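> forwarded from #structure-qc
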C-alpha cells in the first residue's frame, strides 16, 4: 500500500513538473531568451528524471522484477529514457535543440501513462513464464532506449523539413524566434557545417535571415543524424538480444510475430536513413523525409501493434476502459 501510494505521488509530481517545464519552453520561444527561465526548465527536467527514477526503483522493489512487463511500465521507462536524452547535453554544457522535443515527448508519454486509459494495468502483476528471464532487462530496455532516441531524431528531421519548406516558400521572411537557438555552436558542429557547406551552397547567403536559417537547418541535421545513429545502435542490440531470448523461450530465433515484423520494418527504415544521410550526393531533405516516415513506423511498432492484442508479444497489449 505504501509503495503504491508513493508511486502514485511520484507519477503525478513528475507530470506536473514537466508540464511547468514545457510552459517555460513555450515562453522562451515566444519572447527573448531568459537565462533564468532556461536554467529553471533544465533543473525541472532533472527533477522529473529523479522522480521517474525513484518511481521505477520503487516499482522494481515491490514487484520483484524489472518494471518492463506491460505497456504502462514501458511508457514510464520511455519517459525516463527521453529524460536521459534531454539532460546528457545539459551536463556536457553543450547546447542542442533536443530540449523542446524531449520535454514535449515526456509530457505526452507521462500524460498517457497517468491517464485513465491504462488503469487496469497500473498494478504490477506476476510475470508470465515467457518474461521470467534475465533477458528481460537487456532486450526491452535496449528497445525502449532505441525508440526514445529514434523518436527524438525523427522529430528533429521533421523540424528540418518544416524549416526547409518555409525557406523555399519565402526566403525573405522575417527572422523566426527559433533561429536564436543557433547562436552557440560546439566545435563539432562548426566542423560539420564547414564540411557540408556544399550541400546548401545554393542558398542565398546575401540575406542574414537566410544565413541563420541555413545554419539552423544544418544543426538540426547534425543532431538528428547523431541521435538516430545512437537509437539505431540500441534498436539493433535490442533485436539481436530479443532473437536470442526468443530461441530460449520459444525454440526459434524469429517467428514473424506482428511486433517482430514491425521492429524489423523500423530497423530497415532507419538503415535506409543512415544510407541516404551518409551519401553526399543526396540532399539532407531526402534523409529527413525517410526519418519522418520512421517516426510513424516507430509508433506503429511500439504502440499500434499493442492495440491488436495478438501474437507472441500480446502481454504488452491493453484494453480501453469505459465509464
Amino acid at each position: 500500500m505504501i509503495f503504491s501510494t508513493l508511486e502514485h505521488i511520484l507519477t503525478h509530481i513528475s507530470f506536473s513538473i514537466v508540464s511547468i517545464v514545457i510552459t517555460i519552453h513555450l515562453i522562451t520561444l515566444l519572447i527573448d531568451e531568459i537565462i533564468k527561465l532556461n536554467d529553471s526548465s533544465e533543473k525541472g527536467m532533472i527533477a522529473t528524471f529523479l522522480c521517474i527514477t525513484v518511481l521505477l526503483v520503487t516499482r522494481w522493489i515491490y514487484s520483484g522484477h524489472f518494471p518492463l512487463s506491460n505497456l504502462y511500465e514501458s511508457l514510464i521507462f520511455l519517459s525516463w529514457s527521453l529524460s536521459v536524452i534531454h539532460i546528457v547535453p545539459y551536463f556536457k554544457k553543450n547546447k542542442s535543440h533536443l530540449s523542446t522535443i524531449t520535454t514535449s515527448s515526456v509530457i505526452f508519454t507521462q500524460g498517457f501513462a497517468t491517464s485513465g486509459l491504462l488503469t487496469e494495468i497500473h498494478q504490477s502483476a506476476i510475470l508470465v513464464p515467457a518474461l521470467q528471464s534475465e533477458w528481460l532487462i537487456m532486450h526491452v530496455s535496449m528497445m525502449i532506449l532505441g525508440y526514445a532516441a529514434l523518436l527524438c531524431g525523427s522529430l528533429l528531421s521533421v523540424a528540418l523539413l518544416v524549416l526547409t519548406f518555409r525557406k523555399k516558400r519565402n526566403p525573405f521572411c522575417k527572422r523566426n524566434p527559433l533561429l536564436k537557438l543557433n547562436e552557440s555552436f560546439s566545435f563539432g558542429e562548426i566542423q560539420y557545417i564547414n564540411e557540408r557547406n556544399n550541400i546548401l551552397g545554393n542558398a542565398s547567403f546575401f540575406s542574414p535571415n537566410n544565413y541563420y536559417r541555413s545554419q539552423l537547418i544544418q544543426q538540426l541535421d547534425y543532431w538528428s543524424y547523431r541521435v538516430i545513429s545512437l537509437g539505431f545502435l540500441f534498436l539493433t542490440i535490442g533485436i539481436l538480444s530479443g532473437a536470442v531470448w526468443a530461441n530460449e523461450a520459444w525454440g526459434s530465433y524469429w517467428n514473424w510475430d506482428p511486433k517482430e515484423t514491425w521492429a524489423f520494418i523500423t530497423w530497415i527504415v532507419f538503415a535506409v536513413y543512415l544510407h541516404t544521410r551518409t551519401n553526399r550526393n543526396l540532399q539532407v531533405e531526402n534523409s529527413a523525409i525517410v526519418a519522418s516516415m520512421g517516426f510513424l513506423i516507430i509508433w506503429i511498432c511500439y504502440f499500434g501493434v499493442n492495440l491488436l492484442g495478438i501474437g507472441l508479444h500480446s502481454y504488452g497489449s491493453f484494453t480501453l476502459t469505459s465509464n
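QC bot note: DSSP finds nine helices and no strands in the chain. Residues 208-250 form the longest helix (43 residues).
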